[in-house]
Write a structure and sequence with these properties.
single chain, Cobalt-precorrin-4 Transmethylase, domain 1, five-stranded parallel sheet, four-stranded parallel sheet, 12 helices, metal-binding, EC 1.17.7.4
């Protein structure tokens, strides 16, 4: 009898996995600015050989940074960590204050600027406003590298950071009739709209950009999340905690009523208890998160669920940014 029970147990089928439908947001993941920034580091490594120095994380994603480290990139916080010599130093996609390249030139360092062209656009807007005598109000998050870089385009005292509507109430610039506003490129579209409307209400003569500063990729990814989040039991954003656009995606999902929202670096960070009773999962990735990590998350769920994957697409992206001139094939040769 005992032998019979053992045979039955050995031949028993594994319990069926519960079904799970994954709704994959599109667009998601890498944007043109991130692709360009990573390509800048890899092209520089190919041209100059390692080491290549990078000031700050080239993009806000640990997986990407570690991958480039293995290829010979050395990430530093400030220029004083870069030794004298011919090894190039690359400025990250978030942009830098004007003093950074000036100090690099003073030391005779070879510099390569991987600033996203859409961030550079904001820098140029701020400079033009300043030249026209306007005080600039920058809508953004204090301490974010992009904000530090944008504020560093203008002389101290000529640009003011605005983080929320409450701050606007106490704002009394000396030149209230000669103001302009620009924004960080990776903000929440909805939050920024409310802040800008409050600025316009308090300062009716304030001048804004000809075209929205929030980048196309940030906008597109938030729109996809708005479509998917109301349809699912939980939504995961693949991205790093220091990634502004990834944080905003999670907030957007939460705001439209998704009961469970999580920002995770990769599959090993999943809180399985939170997903124990779901039947429909939304999945997206911040603009600096590679698709391989999205696939890793899907594979992790497939070990516990009978997974089907459907893509919800809100638009198609075809934006491409060229490499800096010094790294293009003809210039390098």
């Amino acid at each position: 009898m005992s032998a019979s029970v053992n045979q039955t147990d050995a031949g028993a089928a594994a319990p069926a996995k519960p079904p799970l439908e994954i709704l994959l947001c599109a667009p998601r993941g890498f944007c043109a600015g991130v692709v360009r920034a990573i390509d800048v580091v890899e092209r520089a490594l190919a041209l100059y050989g390692p080491p290549v120095y990078v000031r700050h994380e080239i993009v806000h994603n640990k997986y990407v940074v570690e991958s480039l480290k293995r290829k010979g990139a050395v990430f530093v916080a400030e220029l004083d960590e870069v030794p004298d010599g011919k090894a190039p130093v690359i400025f990250s996609a978030h942009g830098v204050a004007k003093t950074v390249p000036q100090n690099a030139v003073a030391r005779g360092l070879t510099t390569i600027d991987a600033t996203c062209p859409l961030v550079t656009k904001v820098h140029r807007e701020a400079e033009i406003h300043h030249k026209r005598g306007r005080h600039v109000l920058l809508v953004g998050h204090s301490g974010h590298p992009e904000v530090v870089g944008t504020m560093g385009q203008l002389p101290k005292g000529s640009i003011t950071l605005v983080e929320d509507i409450e701050q606007i109430e106490a704002l009394e610039p000396e030149t209230r009739d000669n103001l302009a506003w620009v924004t960080q490129t990776t903000l929440s579209v909805d939050d920024t709209h409310h802040i800008v409307e409050a600025l316009k209400h308090k300062f009716p003569k304030i001048v804004g950009p000809h075209k929205d500063d929030i980048c196309y990729a940030t906008t597109n990814r938030q729109e996809a999340v708005k479509q998917v989040a109301p349809l699912v039991d939980a939504l995961i954003v693949v991205g790093s905690s220091n990634s502004s656009n990834s944080q905003r995606l999670r907030e957007v999902a939460e705001r439209v009523g998704c009961p469970i929202t999580r920002l995770v670096n990769r599959a090993e960070d999943l809180d399985w208890e939170a997903f124990s009773n779901i039947r429909r999962l939304g999945l997206t990735a911040g603009a600096s998160a590679p698709e391989v990590l999205v696939e890793e998350i899907i594979d992790a769920f497939a070990t516990r669920y009978e997974v089907t994957v459907d893509t919800v697409s809100t638009t198609t992206e075809d934006m491409v940014f060229p490499l800096p001139r010094e790294l293009r094939s003809e210039a390098a040769e």
